[in-house]
Write a structure and sequence with these properties.
The protein is of the alpha+beta class and 281 residues long. It has seven helices and ten strands. The strands form three sheets. Strands 1-6-7-5 form a four-stranded antiparallel beta sheet. The two termini are 31 Å apart.
């Protein structure tokens, strides 16, 4: 599933190419993409509008339009947004929608499993209220500090990995980067979130930001279906330290990496570097 680094990679690529362009056609080939909204109604909202900017909120991509509306998209598990200078590739599979721009370029929304969604956020929407309870603090902003991370975790009995995956607390972190950050911070994924010490908050805060930035620099991770906004693979999959490395030696201590299920997700950790009951590894 595309997480914050993958969506941010696409945002940056589209930001260099589509602002200032006018949408001339929005052809929804799969009505499920805009459900429950009618595809023709969504198309009518965006056709003829100029693209002002491309932004991101958590794992959501936001295309700001000249009329004040926003075309929002969530890629979910297998969604892709692919920009081309011309028409889509002939015979391209899993295309759910095509956006034509006034310079001849196209933007296709592909989605093998059809879980991705696109919809309109109306002009004048109070976005602070719109995202409240749905998308929490952005981990790469100045507002995300070690103290704020500690405040978010304080008193929570759920395991720390589940807390990191809770999009209403911290935005954009998914399974892969939660594993990587917890390993770097030397925190066991099943520790109660409220049990972390101040020093562990500092380490985890630093690790979250470091791993997300590294992944953005690498263009995201192409483990399964992810491709960036130009159709290319990312490189972060080659830099993962524990995620997907069960049965291999830990890159830090050479203990064998284990895999279990935490928060209903496949989870990877080192039993020596990430002691279950805290303390120094």
């Amino acid at each position: 599933m595309p997480e914050l680094p993958e969506v941010e990679t696409i945002r940056r690529q589209l930001s260099e190419r589509i602002p200032g362009r006018t949408i001339t056609r929005f052809d929804v080939l799969d009505p499920r993409l805009t459900a429950p909204d009618d595809p023709e109604a969504v198309a009518a909202e965006v056709v003829g509008q100029r693209i002002e900017s491309v932004e991101r909120r958590g794992k959501y991509l936001l295309i700001r339009l000249s009329g004040g509306e926003t075309l929002a998209a969530h890629l979910r598990m297998t969604g892709r947004l692919h920009w081309r200078a011309g028409p889509p590739a002939e015979g391209e599979r899993f295309v759910r929608a095509v956006i034509d721009l006034d310079d001849g370029a196209t933007l296709t929304f592909g989605d093998q499993r059809r879980f991705g969604r696109a919809w309109i956020i109306p002009a004048g929407t109070d976005e602070a209220g719109y995202w409240r309870g749905r998308v929490g603090l952005e981990p790469l902003t100045k507002a995300f500090t070690a103290d704020e991370l500690g405040r978010l975790m304080d008193g929570r009995r759920i395991v720390i990995k589940a807390a990191l995956l809770n999009q209403a607390l911290v935005a954009g972190i998914g399974n892969m980067y939660a594993d990587e950050a917890l390993f770097q911070a030397r925190v066991h994924p099943e520790r109660p979130a409220g049990s972390l010490s101040r020093s562990e908050h500092v380490r985890l805060h630093r690790a979250v930001r470091d791993r997300l930035r590294a992944a953005i620099d690498a263009g995201g991770a192409s483990i399964d279906t992810y491709r960036d906004g130009l159709g290319n693979k990312g490189e972060m999959q080659n830099l993962l330290r524990v995620h997907l490395h069960a049965g291999e030696p830990c890159p830090r201590c050479r203990q064998i990496i284990r895999k279990t299920r935490v928060a209903q997700r496949g989870t990877y950790w080192c039993p020596r570097c990430q002691p279950r009951f805290g303390g120094s590894a």
